[in-house]
Structure formats: C-alpha cells, structure tokens
Write a structure and sequence with these properties.
By secondary structure, the protein is an alpha+beta fold. It has 8 helices and 4 strands.
Length: 183
C-alpha cells in the first residue's frame, strides 16, 4: 500500500510523489521507492500531471483520492514552447508593433495649439526647446510624476514620433535655461 508524499521546493511549488515500501533482499531491509507524479496546483488543490508520467495505476489514483488531491487530467505545459516564439522576434519588429498612448497627449497638445501656448513657447524658447517644454508640461498634466521620468514616459506616447530629446542632461539644461530666462 502506497501513499502520497508532498515535497515543497525552494521556489514554492509542491511536488507530489507516490511512495511505496518494499523489501530489499540484498540489503535485508525495508526501502521506499518514490515515483514523481507532478505538481500540486495550490489554488485548486489539483494535481498537474508531469509529461514524463505515462498513466496512473489504480493504487496511485486511490492514494491521491485518500490524500484529498483531485486529478482531472491536467498535464503540465511543455517547458520550451513559450519562450521559443519570443526569441525569434527582433527588437526592430517590437518597435513597429508597440502601442503608444495617443489620447491625453493629443488633447493637451491641441489645447496648447488653440490657446496660443505652443506659439508663445516657440517665440520665447525656439522650436526645439518649445517641444521639450510642452512634452514636460503634458507629462505633468497627464501623470504628475517626477520630471526625471518624462523621457521614459515620452517613449510610450505619440511624442516619441516627434523625436523630442528628453534625456536627464537635456532636462537639466532646459530647466536651467527656463529658470535663467527673464523673458
């Protein structure tokens, strides 16, 4: 008569084994053999059968039932299939496929254009600096985060297509020039 042994792994998963005792005639003593069955789904309490296990015998199914572990035929996924497709996608393809935020940025940019803000910024600071100031302003209105994060945010918005340079050094220079300008 065998029983189900649970073994918690370092990564938090619980492995299930069917353990059974037998008499070893050479060693003249009792021994235990273990057969790996699969992983325990801790959320459902169900066994996820290993792909390496053929089928369960009646004694193993009875031991699972006695231990209160359900088995509904779930098999663990193949370990290599998920990542093989991801590795084949190049970085240039990912840039083409990326979805960017358009809504809030487009609305705030249109409001800036209609109110004359963009024109005033271009007259006061030049076209390049005006685009950077506008991008930082839209970031503050939309996200309200720390200004050093505006570069990463702009990469995920429609502003990325305008090639606005929002690195840390450019932002420091921009803030300094805006603060020093009396105009």
């Amino acid at each position: 008569m065998g029983f189900i042994a649970k073994q918690k792994n370092a990564n938090g998963n619980v492995s299930l084994y069917f353990a059974s005792a037998y008499w070893d005639t050479q060693a003249k003593g009792a021994r235990q053999s273990r057969k790996y069955l699969g992983q325990l789904d801790v959320q459902t309490g169900e066994l996820i059968k290993s792909r390496k296990v053929d089928e369960f015998v009646a004694e193993e199914l009875a031991a699972l039932k006695k231990a209160g572990i359900a088995y509904k035929g779930r098999i663990s996924p193949h370990p290599g299939r998920k990542s093989s497709q991801v590795r084949k996608v190049s970085a240039s393809m990912l840039r083409e496929w990326r979805s960017v935020e358009f809504g809030r940025v487009a609305i705030l940019r249109e409001l800036g254009r209609r109110s004359g803000l963009i024109q005033a910024l271009e007259e006061g600071f030049g076209k390049d600096d005006a685009a950077e100031i506008l991008a930082a302003s839209i970031f503050e209105c939309a996200e309200g985060g720390a200004l050093y994060r505006v570069g990463d945010w702009a990469e995920d918005t429609i502003l990325n297509e305008e090639k606005v340079a929002l690195s840390s050094s450019n932002l420091a220079r921009l803030v300094e020039s805006v603060g020093a300008s009396s105009e």
